[in-house]
Amino acid sequence: MIFHGRYRYNNGAYRPFLTAYVLSADNRWMKYSFLIDTGADETFFHYRSINILGIDTSQLEILDDVGGVGRYSIPYFHWNTEMKLISPEGTKIFGGEVNVFLDPHATDVPLLGRDVLDTFVA
């Protein structure tokens, strides 16, 4: 399958983005524009996703063992959901854990990491 992304001007540079749909807590597919981040081990959603996806954070385990280039810990949590990618050849749905940042300053765009990207053969 070939998925068509686009380069979007973001923070002073053109960066690769891919549209995907994420299953919300109330079973609606929500459209997201992900930054393709081959340096990220895992996929991360921005803080605003808590409200967008209707995530109940009251019983979640908070983690802080992730850091980017700045090497500082950023609080986040795991959340089970599904992601859907659509191409002219069909649809691919992934299920499993994704991560959601609790710091509103961690990122302003969701990051599509290698946990999803590695399921494809180049």
From TrEMBL:
UniProt entry keywords in alphabetical sequence: Hydrolase
Domain Peptidase A2 as annotated: residue spans: 32-116
GO molecular function per UniProt: aspartic-type endopeptidase activity
GO biological process: proteolysis
Presence of keyword Hydrolase: yes
UniProt keyword annotation of Hydrolase present: yes
Residues spanning the membrane: none
Stored Gene3D superfamilies: Acid Proteases (2.40.70.10)
Family annotation (SUPFAM superfamilies): Acid proteases (SSF50630)
Full protein name: Peptidase A2 domain-containing protein
Organism: marine sediment metagenome
